[in-house]
Design a protein that fits this description.
The structure is a single chain. It contains 3 helices and 2 strands. Helix 1 crosses helix 3. It is flat and about 45 Å long. It is mainly α and 109 residues long. It has 2 domains: 60 residues, no CATH class; 45 residues, no CATH class. It is 35% helix and 4% strand.
Amino acid sequence: MTFLAQLEAAAERAGERLLRLTMYPEYDDVLDSDVGAVRNEADDLHEEPVAAAIFLRRFAADAAWGHLDIGGSASNEHVNLFDVVPRGPSGVATATLAHLARVLAEAGA
């Protein structure tokens, strides 16, 4: 089972949703820099999740990795969002990571 499949299985066990981001090769230039080898942010906030994943991919080489972009969902300032997420820190992806540890342990990783 691939690492991505293990991460997706962990999220399913946790009852959390994951969205796989597309990282087409032409997106790589989003991190090009005039002063350094690479920059660690995008110009446009809409590019941020993909740019962060592309940044990590540059350093991950052949290692199995995943990027859980929780910045926008780490806290809920609304009252009981959709009757699912209570107000305050959401703990988003915490259960997924706990289940991922179990999935990896079961796989002997």
